[in-house]
Amino acid sequence: MSRVPSESAVPTLPATSSAKRHFAFFSTPAHGHVRPTLPIAAELVRRGHRVSYATTAQFHDDVAATGAEVLLYESTVEDLAKEVPADAEDWLALALTMAVAESSALVPVLRARFPATPPDVLAYDSAMNAAGRLLARQWDRPGVEMFPVFLPQGQGVKSFSLGKLVEGAEGGNGGGGPRPAMRAFHEAMSGFLAEHGAEDYSLREFAAGFGGTRLAFFPREFQQGGELFADHFAFVGPCLDFEAARGAWEPPTDGRRVVLVSLGTTYGNRPEFFRACVEAFADGPWHVVMTLGQNGVDPAVLEPLPANVEVHRWLPHLAVLPHAEAFVCQAGMGSLMEALACGTPLVLAAHGREQVIDAGRAVELGLGVMLAPGEPSAAEVHKAVSTAADSLEIRGRVAEMREHIRAAGGTLRAADVLERSATAG
Asked: What is the pLDDT of residues 97-111, one digit of tens each?
């Protein structure tokens, strides 16, 4: 039975301002960062606003489909998985150093496009906050930082903190001096500020001085320590476009239960993992849908496939999840939110540091089960999927989180938040 949310189940919020504004979006050029923003851009266009979106050629068509004006720039990221290995000790420092380079590539494009009249609001991905905070300050415009990952502030929150990273780069590592990756981030960020005319803006001011709205693509109830965050943290939940996924996939007609398997688009090159999933469900009572990622495992290495297993390079997960009884995934925040919005229990195969945190939170909330680190056996995969799908407790917790997601407001509330930022600015 399909579990696509009905329109009546999603809160309908009125537009907050009739004045037409200009919103500029930019995000890290990765699926998990760009895709949550696209429905918001489309909604603002629908409300009559002007929207500009700076992105790379990879996402040109997706952004153009929203009605936004596309501003192309050349990305500095060639292969995120190689530049920022998931198991790297200094994963955060490496990722943020890469993000600073990306911001540096973007800033001249935005300045050249808007030399006289900057946009009214800058809506930017948290990983692109070097560009976002710099331009908001220099253009004297409100900024809205969008978070597809956990927010890093708040007492007791086990997440990533830019402020702590700056302190580590400046103050050293337990008296032994800063690690090379931290020092590299410090140098990259200092160089970025100097290059773009902000020498008077210290790293500590940059890390702590942002006072605008933060918009999170998950409900407050999923955030670690969510009750500690003030009202300028808008937990709008996932912004999803079910209509775009309509017709992309049809469920089997033989009565088999559906399980979706995906390791995302960045760290999904794990052929042994997918082989274990094929073996786990071969010719059994489950219908398996696998998406391997555009740069992931070659489908040919999994052949021959049983009749009840279908493999795709990519497929909109929102076409499958309303029919799935379990989702085996890498625990990226976007994947988690898509599944929970559809009421689908989780089986978590976290690989990267960020994903381990996401998966730990999901398990803490009783939303699924975690596979052990490394490559699981077929028996372990089968047991985990059966547990997640058949546990009344897990299904109940998933249903509760689905209600929190509905109440968060999604795309319409996110557009309202941006409109209010324009008015306040």
From this structure: 889 999 999 999 999
Among 206, 179, 181, 180, residue whose Cα is nearest residue 192: 206
> What gap in Å lies between CA 324 and CA 286, rounded to an integer?
10
Where do the DSSP E strands lie in 276-386?
A: 286-291, 309-312, 324-329, 346-348, 368-370
Q: What's the token pair of residue 410? A: 């999604």
| Token duo for residue 335 | 């994947």
Is pTM beyond 0.85? Reply is yes
Please name the residues in contact with 65: beta carbons below 8 A apart, sequence gap of 6 or more.
38, 42
**Residue for token pair 């476009």:** 241
Q: Over the Cα atoms of the chain, what is R_g?
A: 21
pLDDT of residue 79: 65
* Contact of 267 with 81, CB cutoff 8 Å: yes
All domains in the chain, ordered by first residue: 7-237+409-424 (3.40.50.2000), 249-406 (3.40.50.2000)
40: Cα within 13 Å, side-chain hemisphere? 34
Mean pLDDT of the chain: 88
Half-sphere exposure of residue 23: CA atoms within 13 angstroms, side-chain side: 33
Higher-pLDDT residue of 21 and 186 is 21
Q: How large is the angle between the packed helices 333-341 and 392-408, nearest 10 degrees?
A: 100
Give the whole-angstrom CA distance, residue 51 versus residue 139: 17
Contact 345, 327 (CB under 8 A): yes
